[in-house]
From TrEMBL:
<feature type="domain" description="Carboxymuconolactone decarboxylase-like">
    <location>
        <begin position="94"/>
        <end position="170"/>
    </location>
</feature>
<keyword id="KW-0560">Oxidoreductase</keyword>
<comment type="subunit">
    <text>Homotrimer.</text>
</comment>
<dbReference type="GO" id="GO:0006979">
    <property type="term" value="P:response to oxidative stress"/>
</dbReference>
<dbReference type="GO" id="GO:0015036">
    <property type="term" value="F:disulfide oxidoreductase activity"/>
</dbReference>
<keyword id="KW-0049">Antioxidant</keyword>
<feature type="disulfide bond">
    <location>
        <begin position="130"/>
        <end position="133"/>
    </location>
</feature>
<feature type="active site" description="Proton donor">
    <location>
        <position position="130"/>
    </location>
</feature>
<comment type="function">
    <text>Antioxidant protein with alkyl hydroperoxidase activity. Required for the reduction of the AhpC active site cysteine residues and for the regeneration of the AhpC enzyme activity.</text>
</comment>
<protein>
    <recommendedName>
        <fullName>Alkyl hydroperoxide reductase AhpD</fullName>
        <ecNumber>1.11.1.28</ecNumber>
    </recommendedName>
</protein>
<dbReference type="GO" id="GO:0051920">
    <property type="term" value="F:peroxiredoxin activity"/>
</dbReference>
<dbReference type="InterPro" id="IPR003779">
    <property type="entry name" value="CMD-like"/>
</dbReference>
<dbReference type="GO" id="GO:0045454">
    <property type="term" value="P:cell redox homeostasis"/>
</dbReference>
<keyword id="KW-0676">Redox-active center</keyword>
<dbReference type="InterPro" id="IPR004674">
    <property type="entry name" value="AhpD"/>
</dbReference>
<keyword id="KW-1015">Disulfide bond</keyword>
<dbReference type="Pfam" id="PF02627">
    <property type="entry name" value="CMD"/>
</dbReference>
Length: 175
């Protein structure tokens, strides 16, 4: 089990992350597709090759090929959008109505249920620190019927995966 590999590779100072990772992998707040898609999208957003490799292996066992690709697509498109939308915000009112001019077709046709793709986009946006994107995706998933507890579960996955990535990178660098 790949999440188990990550847990076992965490140093002692990251014990809380190990515990959180284990409990979140057994979460019942989200559907299996929502949970593993969130894990995979966040692993891709974490920029840790080790975390992505380990989570991707287990996600492949829990997701359809379409959902697997959509989760990676959510991480990729949010990698672009989070930068662009944050920049528009930083640049102020003069840029508020500027046309984005970037292709984002996957958002309209992700290959999975819209609510799942939007949830993954929300989780990645939290990792990437984009307030506007996080709020926009939250509004969509809440409109689609997700509860605040479900949204928060995805945020907890994002936070934990990012923390695990930091601990793994530190451990690998200092080894």
């Amino acid at each position: 089990m790949s999440v188990e590999n990550l847990k076992n590779s965490l140093p002692e100072y990251a014990k809380d992350l190990k515990l959180n990772l284990g409990s979140l992998a057994r979460s019942t707040e989200l559907t299996e597709q929502q949970l593993w898609g969130t894990f995979l999208a966040c692993a891709a957003a974490s920029k840790s090759a080790t975390v992505l490799r380990e989570i991707a292996e287990e996600a492949a066992d829990n997701l359809s090929a379409e959902a697997y690709n959509a989760a990676l697509g959510a991480a990729s498109i949010m990698g672009m959008n989070n930068v662009a939308y944050r920049a528009k915000s930083f640049l102020g009112d003069e840029f508020a109505q500027v046309r984005m001019g970037l292709r984002m077709n996957i958002i309209g046709n992700p290959g999975v249920e819209k609510v799942d793709f939007e949830l993954w986009s929300l989780a990645v946006s939290t990792i990437n620190g984009c307030h506007d994107c996080t709020a926009a995706h939250d509004a969509v998933v809440r409109k689609e019927g997700m509860t605040k507890e479900q949204v928060w579960e995805a945020v907890k996955v994002a936070a934990t995966v990012q923390g695990v990535a930091q601990a793994i990178v530190a451990s690998e660098t200092l080894a």
